[in-house]
Specification:
By secondary structure, this protein is α+β, with helices and mostly antiparallel strands. The chain is 27% helix and 26% strand. The longest helix has 28 residues, at 187-214.
Length: 401
């Protein structure tokens, strides 16, 4: 293992290759102009571009061809060792678009996993073989990552470039749909622009790996930001000697099932909700409505300056107030006074606001999403309880240990 410029110790064999493609739309499909790559290891970086010979699908590369050629270029540049790498982390920004540019897309989409409308590796990596320029058959083990899932939802590649002080190059909006013209008139700018996208993807995946290592969350590029959050939470639980079952209200049971393939019974552990918790899960699930999103105008609005106010860190701040639930003390209560700020409780209530209230604040589910009526039946948490409301509906509450 070696130290990075940021002082983070990264695995010596970590290899990240960012990739991208440039194309122009045509009536019978996209004409792929080029594929570009950017490799990064502890020893340095290298980049390259591969141009296609024509507009037909047969002129396109396969994913393994691009990754293989990138590895060969890295070895030739002296960045990669003479030994063929065992594992490659290939990454792109919104990989679904770039994978569709490869000749073997119909195969690739079955080999990778789909999340958030794009492709990554969740289970087994993509294993294949690549024939190098010396006609040697080389094994490739490819783990696919997408920088779109390693950044806040909706993040553009340009924003990631600014974050890492590697901005996208500006070629003008009028040229974006005519990359073939740019390639013909200014091939140097075309190459620099095309490679930059692959560079940003590789750099962001590397930076996220360093973040993971620095915080003890793993030593490979994470699949999603959520993956990091889960790993961080589990690390905190382990540090404080907390058991997941105790926190989540679960218990571990051992199941005995017949395996038809092996023709014998097998036992396996499984985490399931405690019986008392299971009885109220449906109501608890219905209590969650998410943030409040409403529009008070329809159609065209007046021209002006509009503000969208938000509470920064509202969810994390509220969740920080949670303590260890005492699941064994679950009880059903019809007493409104049991629903204090320190009670982990939930309730189904009938409510009615005064007629002069312009914007009622309690959500009710409908066929068209959440609505906020003056009167209705709502499932809610005690923190949202309005003392003016009256109810005789059934309530459930948990108390802290």
């Amino acid at each position: 293992m070696y130290g990075s410029p940021n002082g983070v110790i990264t695995p010596a064999d970590l290899l990240i290759i960012g990739f991208d493609s440039e194309y122009v739309p045509q009536a019978d499909g996209n004409h792929v102009l080029s594929y570009q790559y950017a490799g990064k290891t502890n020893n340095g970086t290298w980049t390259g571009i591969v141009y296609t010979d024509g507009a037909e699908r047969k002129h396109r590369l396969r994913l393994k061809d691009l990754i293989g050629q990138a590895i060969e270029a890295g070895r030739k540049a002296g960045v990669l060792s003479t030994q063929w790498p065992n594992i490659v982390y290939a990454t792109a920004h919104f990989s679904r678009a770039d994978l569709s540019s490869f000749r073997d897309y119909s195969l690739l989409k079955a080999r990778f996993d789909s999340i958030r409308g794009t492709y990554v590796t969740l289970g087994q990596p993509y294993r294949c073989r690549y024939t190098d320029r010396n006609n040697h058959s080389r094994p490739l083990t490819i783990h696919l990552r997408d920088t779109a899932t390693m950044s806040p939802a909706g993040s553009k590649l340009a924003a990631l470039g600014e974050l890492h002080r590697l901005p996208k190059l500006d070629i003008g909006n009028e040229m974006l749909g005519h990359m073939d013209v740019l390639l013909k008139e200014n091939p140097k700018l075309f190459k620099a622009y095309a490679i930059r996208d692959a560079e940003i993807a590789a750099l962001h995946a590397w930076a996220m790996t360093e973040f993971s290592i620095a915080n003890g969350l793993g030593d490979t590029p994470p699949v999603t930001l959520g993956t990091l959050a889960i790993n961080h939470l589990q690390a905190l639980w382990a540090r404080d000697n907390l058991q997941a079952n105790d926190i989540l209200g679960n218990e571990t049971v051992v199941e005995r099932n017949f395996n038809r393939r092996s023709n014998r019974y097998q036992t396996s552990p499984r985490s399931v909700p405690l019986a008392a918790v299971h009885d109220h899960l449906g109501l608890a699930t219905e209590c969650y409505h998410g943030g409040r999103n409403e529009a008070f105008m329809f159609g065209f609005t007046e021209v002006g300056c509009w503000y969208d106010y938000d509470l920064a860190g509202a969810y994390s701040t509220a969740m920080a107030a949670l303590r260890m639930p005492d699941w064994s003390a679950i009880k059903v209560s019809h007493n409104v006074e049991d629903y204090q700020h320190d009670a982990l409780g939930l309730a189904r209530v009938h409510f009615r606001f005064p007629d002069d209230i312009r914007f009622p604040c309690l959500p009710v589910r409908s066929d068209n999403g959440l609505i906020f009526p003056l009167e209705g039946v709502q499932i809610r948490l005690p923190a949202c309880r309005n003392r003016a409301l009256t109810t005789r509906k059934r309530r459930h509450t948990w108390h802290w240990a």
